[in-house]
Design goal:
With 328 residues, this protein is an alpha+beta fold. The protein folds into 2 domains: 81 residues, 2-Layer Sandwich (Phosphorylase Kinase, domain 1); 201 residues, Transferase(Phosphotransferase), domain 1 (Orthogonal Bundle), CATH 1.10.510. Strands 1-2-3-4-6-5 form a 6-stranded antiparallel β-sheet, with helices on one face. Strands 7-10 form a two-stranded antiparallel ribbon. A two-stranded antiparallel ribbon has the order 8-9. β2 and β3 form a beta hairpin. α3 runs antiparallel to α5. It holds the Pfam family Pkinase. This is CK1:TTBK protein kinase. It comes from Trichuris trichiura. Keywords: ATP-binding, Kinase, Nucleotide-binding, Transferase. One of its GO terms (molecular function) is ATP binding.
């Protein structure tokens, strides 16, 4: 296939590849494989022709009605250099395909959690994930946007899991500005419709009402509770009943296998109004206090690092020479 020519074009089957394996993008990036596919388009693995570094290429048809990749480019450009965001290297259009090139991420929290025998993360790991998630949300809010789809599937770590300690927030396709160009909070729309993922969205979002900054934090809390408990209480409930269950569930039941002090965060979020700015530092300080109470340390290994540490320890024991007994 000639460089810069996508496989598909307007009107082709949606299953036809947007880019082909071996195709060169912008004379810089060689497509080496496909990572995933969805209604938004396709994510490919690629490598730099010059340096050999691996990257991810997100591709979307130019005639897509969702235009999620365009939003991704805007947010990643504004957030470049932020701790919890992928680096954006390049973006453009080839034929009828829009694309962006960004850091290649490792597994998502959802994938890591499901691969474990317990299907959960420890409190130690979950609390540190929570702190990083609040930091990530604050970064997004600081540039005037809401994410609107925070969930374990959109939270990932570095490719090298043995050293991965940073949580990255992915997929800004549903993001929306909550401030005007003058920096004022936009007035809530009457019936904006639902955007997000039902399991992790706030009650406000589930009802199709306008989401504010507080609603991103509700999604963080639901994600962390799932990390600790394996599943949310409404995980296998009929979708039309989820709102009622969320509204009527006591905090103690929601936090059945989570630190009871997290109830302070839930009550705080319940008290917040659409236009209010969250007290991010206070929320983080509460998670920090829970860590201190249980004597957890920030430099403790995360759950996904422990198998690598055990393997390293085992190899070191195998290499250790047997003691030699010398008789007099």
């Amino acid at each position: 296939m000639a460089d810069g020519t996508p496989d598909g074009s307007r009107g082709d089957s949606p299953r036809r590849p947007l880019f082909g394996i071996g195709q060169v993008i912008n004379d810089r990036w060689i497509i080496t494989g496909r990572i995933g596919e969805g209604s938004f388009g396709t994510v490919y693995k690629a490598k730099s022709k010059q340096f050999g570094i691996e990257v991810a290429v997100k591709a979307e048809r130019a005639d897509s009605k969702q235009r999620s990749l365009e939003v991704d480019v805007v947010l990643l450009s504004k957030l470049n250099g932020s701790r919890h965001t992928c680096t954006l290297y390049s973006y453009g259009t080839i034929g009828q395909v829009h694309y962006l090139v960004m850091d290649l991420m490792g597994r998502t929290l959802s994938e890591i959690k499901q691969s474990g025998s317990r299907k959960t993360f420890s409190w130690n790991t979950s609390l540190r994930i929570a702190i990083q998630c609040v930091e990530a949300v604050e970064e997004v809010h600081s540039i005037g946007y809401l994410h609107r789809d925070i969930k374990p599937d959109n939270l990932a770590i570095d490719v090298d899991e043995a050293t991965a300690r940073t949580i990255y927030l992915l997929d800004f396709g549903l993001a929306r500005r909550y401030v005007t160009l003058n920096g004022e909070i936009r007035k809530p729309r009457q019936s904006p419709g639902f955007r997000g993922t039902t399991l992790y969205s706030s009650v406000t979002a589930n009802k199709g009402k306008e989401a504010g900054r507080v609603d991103d934090l509700w999604s963080v809390m639901y994600s962390i509770i799932e990390c600790m408990q394996g599943a949310l209480p409404w995980d296998h409930v009929n979708e039309k009943d989820i709102v009622s269950i969320k509204e009527n569930m006591p905090n103690q039941l929601l936090l059945e296998n989570a630190p009871e002090e997290m109830e302070y965060v839930l009550n705080y979020l319940k008290s917040m109004k659409y236009e209010e700015q969250p007290h991010y530092k206070w929320i983080i300080s509460l998670f920090e206090a829970i860590m201190q109470e249980h004597e957890y340390q920030h430099d403790d290994p995360y759950d996904w690092q422990i198998p690598f540490l055990k393997k390293k320890e085992s190899l070191q024991k195998q290499k250790k020479p047997d003691s030699v007994c010398i008789q007099a």
